[in-house]
Amino acid sequence: MNFEAYLEWIDQLPWLNYELWNNSAARWLSAAGIIFLAYLVLRIVVGFFRRRVRKFTETTTSGWDDGIAQTLDATKTWFLLLLAVYAGSLVLDLPDRARDIVQTVAILALLLQAALWGSKLLKFVIEYYMKQQRESDPALATTVSAMSFVGNLVLWSVVLLLALDNMGVDVTALVAGLGVGGIAVALAAQNILGDLFASLSIVLDKPFVLGDFIIVGDEMGTVEKIGLKTTRVRALSGEQLIFANTDLLDSRIRNFKRMHQRRVVFTIGVIYETTQEQLTAIPNIIRSAVESQKDARFDRAHFKAFGDYSLNFETVYYVLDCGYYVYMDVQQAINLRLFEKFAAEGIEFAYPTQKLFVDSNAAPEANAS
Question: Are 203 and 287 found together in one domain?
Fold first, then answer.
């Protein structure tokens, strides 16, 4: 028996010919039965898929199946009930206005449920991304929260427009007006939007993170906060430097925290009276002083140049720790070692001096009359 034949059959039952709103009691009972069965079937189907997905997630290491499970958990009871009511209304002979209302309510319920699914899935994706970073970064959390807000705003805006369109509202003029208004707002707030997207680029690309010591132009300091519009840097002298995120991305940034080792070049000078034997020994003395430090790797030491008042030696070595205090401790230890060794070898450090030569044979100037 097809659906049309079933409706004709129940209309012919004499004991169910009582009519209410142009529908017999038999049709109302049939609608109630369909609503009950449809709701029951939908609950069973949704519950079955929930259990199957949950069981599947326990056997896998991937996190995306957890997202599917969480999305299914967002299925609401009222959505299933409204779908069942819509299915039951199909057996009733309703006026066009009433049928349009029922159909519109069903579509609105579907749109709302789709928005809830999308919002739940978006939340899962963001949380999954945060877990993958394996670090506690407040700047990342702030930017990702902003992304979540923007994503949900776009999602619910689209749902609202679709809902208004299904309710008979002409959204064409509304969308056009929003488009023109959006362009005007974007032009007025282009600097703010530029800093916002720059913040997103900083957080995702990570040219620096919190705690890094950076140099931007003539300014330097430690990164304290990466905000949606500005980045705060604590300068060495104590004050806080505030950079617009766009300005940071347009600048060349030197990130000293990313150094794996520090290259150090320093020069010392000895007096011109130093003997050739002492000059030959100096590179080995410097090498010994550098290699005696566990955090240093010697590269070279050479007699570089004849200075105005000194014979200059240039030394290059690497500090294996990027910390500035480690570098200063190593350099201090090298300097003390050189001072000790030079004193033991009778080698004198040079300092700015001038020699004045007087010709004793020169005739004295005539006395003025």
Answer: no
**Model confidence over 113-127: pLDDT tens digits?**
898 888 888 888 877
Which residue positions in the chain have pLDDT lower than 50? 366-369
Same domain, 20 and 39: yes
Q: Are residues 241 and 277 in the same domain?
A: no
Per DSSP bridges, beta strands 311-319 and 262-270 are: antiparallel
Tens-place pLDDT, residues 195-212: 777 777 777 778 888 888
Q: pTM, whole model, 2 decimals?
A: 0.51
Spatial distance between the Cα atoms of 137 and 127, rounded to a whole number of angstroms: 13
| CA neighbor of 229 nearest in space, from 182, 191, 187 | 191
Q: Pick from 138, 134, 140, 249: which is nearest to 204 by CA? A: 140
CA distance 89 to 223: 63
122 within domain boundaries: yes
DSSP state of 14: G
Q: Which residue has the tokens 């949950």?
A: 54
Q: Two tokens at 89? A: 């209304």
Dihedral sign (CA 40, 45, 50, 52):
positive
Q: Please, what sign has the CA dihedral across residues 285, 304, 280, 344?
A: negative
pLDDT 10s digits, 271-325: 999 999 999 999 999 999 999 999 999 999 999 999 989 999 999 999 998 888 8
13 within some domain: yes
At 225 the three-state DSSP class reads strand
Q: State the residue for tokens 């600048």.
A: 251
Do the beta carbons of residue 268 and residue 338 sit within 8 Å? Answer: yes
- Whether residue 190 is found in the same domain as residue 108: no
Residue 350 lies in a domain: no
- Residue-level length of the chain: 369
Edge-first strand listing for the sheet containing 262-270 = 262-270, 311-319, 296-306
Write down the H helix ranges in the chain.
Answer: 3-11, 25-57, 64-73, 77-89, 96-133, 138-166, 171-188, 190-205, 245-249, 276-291, 324-345
Q: Which of 207, 235, 257 is the last residue of a domain?
A: 257
State the CB neighbour count (10 A cutoff) for residue 90.
12
Domain that residue 212 falls in? 137-144+167-257
Residue 234 in any domain: the answer is yes
Report how far Cα 320 is from the mean position of its chain's Cα atoms: 30
